[in-house]
Amino acid sequence: MRKVITLGVLTLLCTVLVAGAQAGKQASVVKLKFATYVWQPTTVAANKAIVESWNKSHPGIQVEIVPVDVNSVHDKLLTSFVGGTAADVIHDEAADIAGFTQQGYLANLTPLIPKTLKRTIPNSLWQTTNFGGKITGVPALLQTYNIFANMDILKSAGIKAPTLADPWTWPEFRANAKRLTTSGRFGVCWGLRSPTAVTQTMSLNYGGQFFYLENGKWTFKFGPNDQNVVRQMHDMIHVDKSVDPAATGLSGSAVLPAFFGGKCAMTVAGNFAAQSMILQSPKGFNWAMFPLLKGRTQEQVANPQTYSISQQSTNKQAAMFFISYLVNRQNLAKLALGDWLIPANPEAGKLARKSTKRTGSWKIATESVVHFRKGNWVSLAAYPRWKAEVAQPNFVQYLRGSISLEDLGKNLEDGWKRINGR
Amino acid sequence: MSAAPEAGPPIFARTRRNRSGSGLSGRETMLLLIPALLPIVILSVLPLVRGIYLGFTDARAGLNVPTTFIGLDNFRALLDDELFVNSFKIGVIWSVAVTAIGFCFALGLALLLTQNLRGRWLARSLALVPWAMPAVVVGIMWKLVFQPQAGVLNEALRRGHIPGENTDWLSSFSWALPAVILVGVWAGMPQTTVALLAGLQSIQDELHEAAAVDGATAWQRFRTITLPQLRPVIIAITTLDFIWNFNSFGLVYVLTEGGPAGKTQLPMLFAYSQAFEYGEFGYASALGSAMVVVIAVALVFYLWGRLKEAK
Amino acid sequence: MIVTTRPRRTKTVQYAVLLGYLVFLGFPLLWMLSMSFKGPRELVQLYPSFIPEDFTFENYRTALTEDDHQLVRNGINSLKVAAVTALLTTMIGLPAAYVLARRKGLITRLGLGWILLSQMFPLILIIIPLFLLLRDLKLTNSHIGLVVVYVVWALPFILWMLMSYIRGIPHDLEEAATVDGASRFQILVGIIAPLLVPGIVVTTLFAFISAWNEFFFALVILENPDLTTLPLRLAQYVGIEGVVRFGPLAAAALLATAPSLILFTIIQRWLARGLLSGAVKG
Fold first, then answer.
1. How far is C216 from chain B (nearest CA, A)?
2. How far is CA C16 from CA A366, B104, B119, C19, C21, in A?
3. What is the mean pLDDT of the segment spanning B111-120?
4. Which end of chain B, N or C, is surrounded by fewer C-beta atoms within 10 Å?
5. pTM score, two decimals?
6. Which residues, other chains included, contact B103 with Cβ-Cβ below 8 Å and sequence gap of 6+?
7. Mean pLDDT, consecutive 10-residue segments, chain A of 422 residues?
């Protein structure tokens, strides 16, 4: 009998010890969830490779990728925050995290960011994720809006392409677009289905910020600097008639077939459209990406993709380690190459250029980093709502000629007062 | 117990039958109902009540944000909100149009299906197809039809030399709502056609034949015999259709997401964006309650129709 | 059926109109079918033709294999969720439908009233509290949570359908069995159920189709792409900035619809009959 009891106790003891050891081992492995909306097959592969190499070299911190649908990032993130199922590391963009920051869902990264990481990214870009002294995102990848041109058409019309040293100005762009408009062909096919981003980004060419701090409140203003770019766009469509009006209802990538088919000489798109150019254009299609258009300056608003940490995460320090790894020079270059975007880290930009034979557009893209400036609207929490409910419909209507410039300004202002006031 | 087989059910069995008429005891009833009753109360009735209550609070997304009762503030804000007014306007236009046009189409088809035509079986099967398809697929399918460059509608217009071949239907300010209504009609054909067809088939033939012998034309017969007999079905199915259409979400979400510039923003789409893009849970719930008001009006109409017909 | 002789002209007009209906009803589906067989270059060309010039199965291959066969995995998700929903709903609904069909009284009237009303409430009123409830139960972003919501959502219509079928079974059988001393359970299992088999099959399949097609709840409750059901995935196909890859999209849409189309064709005859016995009289 005693033997049985001893055996029983020993077995029990062993089980407890083993279980404890197991639990102990499990407790010491930190598990992080990394929500990301990367969707380009090249970027998805690069992302996966980076996470795998991290997991191999950091057995104590294991990262799991949680894919997020790229078309409903905001909704999905919001439901995950509200539902308490948010990931630890969150991939989003600067203009979008303003709202989440205000709602308290994002952790304050300022005390967590290692100095080495801080140094690699220019201060102007850190400004975009700084909300009243709280940094809630690490800037990673950015884009610019560039002109893409069908070089065969330009050559036959005798128009010279701009260079980095000698870019086109808005008047030159308009004049050339007019020259290139013949019967059966437009100068520009511009996909303006969602015109707010391109309009507000490029308005910085004339210093148009739209939102200005007055008496401690962010007010919307529609002065000459703010109106300039959208007015020129409108005039190109309705006065110069050099932009195909039918195409303005389409998205940037939906106008590509017309561009490839020679129905227009130029198009304006995000710099990453270079990838579509390469993959989708017919054989022998001679295209080029132009340097940034110049108003008074070539500045464009920086709205980088960001990596943030959820306030509900229980492993913030570990998450920060991972983010630092994710945006180091080599890895950021890999991600940039996958998405055809511009790295926030200029060193990574140089690396990206070196690793590809595709100079040309890459050179122009990475050279644009100096022209990035903070747009005030990127940091405003109510901005995404104003953009979707007020800006988009009104910009669309103005560009289609349904409302006047004055009405546009009034509607935008009234809309901001209503939304920001709630 | 009676020994005479012709005497029918024994007397004691007759008296054992309780007032409910089926022999179900109260305890049995509850036992049979509980598996369904419990989930319904917990997951349908209670949430519905809570949903209505939320409309009177400032519930919103945010970490550790408290929810306070604010009475009618949401409703006041709704009336001020031009986007809300717009979505309701679009919702009513959409529901009325889809229901009315769909009714005409379905009635026509149902009438045809009662005629002795060859190929009826094909039309009947095709009429039911939209029912089987997910709303998302219906939306995608019609998106492919309406696509400006690669879609069949514009190609057909071009080949038929009818103007409008370059129209981007779903992005056009003037054509987006009509286009979406057309899809709504298509998707709503099954239930209306089936209901009307069943109604038509239950109308006695003798009445029609007698009237035909009396020399009444088809149209007169339709008006004086078919329509009155069909009235209860018509009232029922159009009321239901109106309500379902007013609550519609998936179809238009996939087609246009409420665009362009809110021209096809149905109430449910607006409510969804308020709740799950901006986290305005209280506001969206108030919106839902407002929708219920419209539905209640439709129901009143239905009941009034039934009462009239009962006289 | 009215059998009167009609003038030739009316018949022609009727056939013409019927043809019009056939085109209206069938053409969009045929168009999508045609697009699913077109190659990528043909899909972006400016003047499309109806019959594919460049017939290919590539789109189906892409749709099925891309993202590590994600479409197939999503299909399995849909299958899981729809099957469990259908079975649970019928199992829960059958006893309740029996009570509602047989017993007249307050509960029945309340039940019928709720069945009708619940079809009419805008889903937004219920999804927010349900979502918050699921969150507290840690059931968001899970198939279990989705099935739970689906069962409750499908119950009303299922109850209604089952009630129509049960009403079609004469009382006398039950009464005779009661006389013979059978228990309620024996009656249900031995008499009602066998007679109800076609009705149960139709109802279960209908519940399956409804769950298979559902979109809104899935959109709100599911976040993880691994858990996504087919309608949700299809909605996400409309890629970034509206880059729609029409070929794979058409192929995927057809693949996603095929099961419910097939099942629906099977049950449609009984469906119309069963459903409307309630609608016309009631």
1. 7
2. 63, 17, 12, 5, 9
3. 79
4. C
5. 0.82
6. B192, B234, B237, B238, B241
7. 68 60 64 90 89 94 89 87 91 91 93 92 90 92 92 91 91 92 89 89 92 88 92 92 84 82 90 82 88 91 93 93 93 89 89 74 84 87 86 90 92 88 61
C contact chains, 3+ CB pairs < 8 A: A, B
Assigned token pair, B98: 């889809």
> Is the torsion defined by CA of A270, A274, A279, A285 positive or negative?
positive
Asked if A388 has any chain B CB less than 8 Å from its own CB, the reply is yes
Distance from C-alpha of A385 to C-alpha of A262, rounded to nearest angstrom: 37
Contacts of C247 (CB under 8 A, 6+ apart): C35, C36, C38, C39, C40, C43, C58, C59, C62
Nearest CA-CA partner of C171 in C191, C155, C190: C191
**Which SS3 state, helix, strand or coil, does residue A300 take?**
strand
Choose the closest CB to C29 out of B54, B59, B141: B141
Share of residues in chain C with pLDDT > 90 (%): 12
Give the ranges where chain B is alpha helix by DSSP (H): 11-16, 26-40, 46-54, 73-80, 82-114, 120-132, 135-146, 152-159, 176-201, 205-213, 218-221, 227-246, 250-255, 267-276, 281-310
Q: How far is CA B10 from CA B5, B16, B23, B165, C261, in A?
A: 10, 10, 15, 79, 51
Q: How many CA atoms lie within 13 A of B122 on its CB side?
A: 13
The domain limits of chain B are: 87-275
Residue C242 has pLDDT above 80, yes or no: no
Q: pLDDT tens digits for C92-124?
A: 888 888 888 887 778 778 888 888 888 888 888
Pairing of strands A305-309, A264-270: unpaired
**Relative orientation angle of helices A346-355 and A329-339, to the nearest 10 degrees:** 60
What is the pLDDT, as a whole number, of residue A16? Answer: 59
Q: Do A257 and B149 touch (CB under 8 A)?
A: yes
Nearest CA in chain B to A418: B81
**Phi, psi angles (nearest 5°) of residue C5:** -80, 135
CA distance B171 to chain A (A): 6
Contacts of B253 in chain C (CB under 8 A): 215, 235
Contact at CB, A104 and B63, closer than 8 angstroms: yes
Chains interfacing with A (3 or more CB pairs < 8 Å): B, C
pLDDT score, position B9:
46
Q: Domain B87-275 adopts which CATH fold?
A: MetI-like fold (1.10.3720)
Residues B295, C22: C-beta atoms closer than 8 Å:
no
CB B177, CB B263: distance < 8 Å: yes
The interface predicted TM-score of the complex, written ipTM, equals 0.83
| Contact (CB<8Å) B171/A75 | no
Q: How distant, in Å, are the alpha carbons of A152, A181, A228, B15 from that of A266?
A: 11, 10, 21, 91
Distance of CA B304 to the CA centre of its chain: 19
Run of H or E residues at A64: strand A61-67
φ/ψ of residue A303, rounded to 5: -130, 75
